[in-house]
Design goal:
Structural class of chain A: alpha+beta
Cofactor (chains A, B): Zn(2+); Co(2+)
Largest interface: A-B, 58 and 58 residues
Protein name (chains A, B): ArgE/DapE family deacylase
Shape of chain A: elongated
Number of helices of chain A: 11
Family (chains A, B): Belongs to the peptidase M20A family.
CATH superfamily of the largest domain in chain A: Zn peptidases
Distance between the termini of chain A: 21 Å
CATH architecture of the largest domain in chain A: 3-Layer(aba) Sandwich
Oligomer: homodimer
Number of strands of chain A: 20
Radius of gyration of chain A: 23 Å
CATH topology of the largest domain in chain A: Aminopeptidase
Helix content of chain A: 25-40%
Keywords (chains A, B): Cobalt, Hydrolase, Metal-binding, Zinc
Organism (chains A, B): Phreatobacter aquaticus
């Protein structure tokens, strides 16, 4: 049932009135340089803030055994975060509405060289409409918005009339195991909302993601002559060339995936990191590189893993260095499936109304070629999993930023969504 | 005047009798992990050992200003060693013979991953005829041999009848500035002997060497789509491809350099090290790689530097990422000229007789495509600069090793050479 217009107006006013406080909290969150493995202090702050609001708090580690037995689990590597997951549960006086999970991640990708930023990546600043900082858009702005929704309702004497589970996870940027751990622990709701930076659009479908490292190491055939065929760095280039051919073949299959058929290049392979050798005058006998590639929704990670491994084997047989020294492939992160948000759910309709009321425009949908934690709830809980958030630029790049005005619109929409989906009751 | 046969026999016996002690000193030297910048303790040991033998000791730093003004100087980088150079001078009672500089370097190249060695690289062991250890062959075996020559003569009551300057340098593996600093300080002799591991042969000519780092960094054009044209790591591969073409063109010129015309591939480009990016799921906006390339004797480094820079400029114009973000070329090591040892010198004749007497075989010559410190004395002092040393395998690689029997033969030849070149007098 659509929200009463007067109530909607009061809620929107409350969001606007709270907005400076929301940006203050976003600033605090961005100042935590919560890169992989370093999320502990940020999670402690989140825990304290949720507890302050009277939510029932839970905090727990990942269960590697349980994750590894689940088809949606990604492999653990030595870099896997050990930071806790933090969950705050709002339980209403009377459970009259529909329950909701709101989730954000606090892990951020590395900032890269300071010199490539026009400002300190962990000292947020707003210039014009842009809020700059590593992890601001992806996704501490959304994280602060979850607090803002609850605070704005509270400011007008209301709270959700259904259980709302607020989940603050880690490992979203590397494995998706944080969200999966929440699922394994048993949290469940009638819908899920994750406010990732998605251009004020709702994600209709997203790709699965595979992460792997290729480790080339072995003895050059003749160390005295540094011909290119004996150099582990250049042997690695040859493997990368073959992986690019695999990427091209996967992109050619887009017609089989109607939601992705319009995307000029839905499957992106990224060679994100490389390290090899240690001395200009020594023939390098080792080189490793880290890759990320997307897979279409419906494709099983294990099938696509085999295709990657076969590509690397074939590349090795054709190379002088590699045929003597077959590379090792390490699956060191994401091995996750994509998902499709089935159209027609009541949750989507409610978000559509909320968006229209908050922004004056109809809610559009889009697909993304990137990993999203919503996959856990779409695939394994089979509930409407809504990924929707603000306009941003340069996530994972330099001068990452989100639009402040967009974040305000999105927060307004989120608040109306929660009020209608969960209903409200006196706080 | 050839050595008296009886004296030669006494000297050879003395070398043999001293040989266990010589290997002990080699072991001690190899245990110092004297990689670039870490040579201090090893140089202190060398200083103490030379002083113990009564040589007049000198110890001094590099003079960056003087080196940079000299045509044979290589650029300083932040990694340049600050370890001292150690020189011990033997002055005879009567200066009746020809003076000699004997020189070795104590810097060694990095060992690389421990897992690729079949033993600890800095815990030397002898197995069969092979002495294993990083820097054993290149060139602590030769370093210990300089001591062994003086000790063996002393053991039979003799010493050189001319000034012998024993120079222990650093930066041989990266700039050649250590040897140049000795030249700049004014040490000079009628001949120079450097016992690098050269297959029991005399070096007739060697190549010059250039070191450079190419730094690619800039903003990918569209960070949202990780197409290969926007990736700094893959942009770097393109530059490397063009440098390989330059290498091929330089190899085609070998007919113009008769001493190198028989070598199947005299000019080696090595891509020795690469680093780029920091996250599998972020498009890498930076990548740097370290290179080494040879130049023919007679070619001027500044001319060849321009050719490298023009190659990189041309590669950049053809690449989508690089044309927006031209790479930076940093000359961070060797910019050295090659040399030719002119045949017919008396020093070469004396070494030839010594080698024949010590090994039973005529002295052969060879060319090397690698840097040698002898270039300083050949080019700037214009004296016979003899590079001659033991049989080895895998220098700059894993399980670096030298032949113990070969080292004994070479030490015998060195002792006879010193005795004939310098003459002898009672100790």
């Amino acid at each position: 049932m659509p929200l009463d217009a007067a109530l909607a107006a009061r809620i929107l006013d409350a969001v606007d009135a709270n907005f400076d406080r929301q940006m203050d909290m976003t600033r605090v969150l961005v100042r935590f340089a919560s890169v992989r493995g370093e999320e502990g202090p940020c999670q402690d702050f989140v825990h304290a803030e949720l507890a302050k609001r009277g939510l029932a708090m839970e905090r727990f580690p990942m269960d590697e055994g349980a994750i590894s037995r689940h088809p949606g689990g990604s492999p653990f590597s030595p870099e896997h975060s050990k930071a806790p997951i933090v969950v705050g549960i709002h339980r209403p006086r009377e459970e009259t509405g529909r329950s909701l999970i709101m989730q954000s991640h606090v892990d951020v990708v590395p900032a890269g060289p300071r010199s490539m930023w026009s400002r300190d990546p962990f000292e947020p600043v707003i210039e014009g409409d842009w809020f700059y900082g590593r992890g601001g858009a992806d996704m501490k702005a959304g994280h602060a918005a979850m607090f803002a929704v609850l605070d704005s309702l509270r400011a007008i004497g209301l709270q959700p009339a259904a259980t709302v589970t607020v989940q603050s996870v880690v490992e979203e940027e590397s494995t998706g195991n944080g969200a999966l751990q929440c699922h394994l622990r048993g949290y469940k709701a009638d819908a899920v909302l994750i406010p990732e930076p998605e251009e004020e659009k709702l994600i209709r479908a997203n790709a699965g993601v595979l992460w792997f490292r290729v480790e080339v190491s072995g003895l050059p055939v003749h160390v005295s002559h540094a011909g290119s065929g004996q150099n582990a760095i250049e042997a690695a280039f040859g493997v990368i060339g073959k992986l690019r051919e695999l990427e091209a073949r996967w992109n050619e299959k887009k017609a089989d995936h109607p939601l992705f058929a319009e995307d000029p290049h839905p499957i992106n392979l990224n060679i994100g990191k490389i390290e090899g050798g240690d001395w200009a005058s020594s023939v390098p006998a080792w080189c490793s590189f880290d890759c990320r590639i997307a897979i279409y929704p419906g494709e099983r990670p294990e099938t696509m893993i085999r295709a990657v491994e076969e590509t690397i084997s074939a590349a090795s047989r054709a190379d002088r260095f590699l045929s003597n020294n077959p590379p090792r492939v390490v699956w060191n992160g994401f091995t996750t499936e994509g998902y499709i948000l089935e159209p027609g759910s009541e949750a989507e309709a409610v978000l559509g109304r909320a968006h229209k009321a908050a922004t004056g425009k109809p809610l559009e949908t889009m697909i993304t070629p990137a990993y999203l934690d919503t996959r856990v709830y779409a695939l394994y809980d089979k509930v409407p999993a809504l990924c929707y958030g603000p306009i941003s630029e340069n996530i994972h790049g330099f001068d990452e930023r989100f639009s402040v005005a967009s974040m305000k619109r999105v927060t307004r929409a989120m608040a109306l969504f929660v009020a209608e989906w969960c209903g409200t009751e006196p706080a």
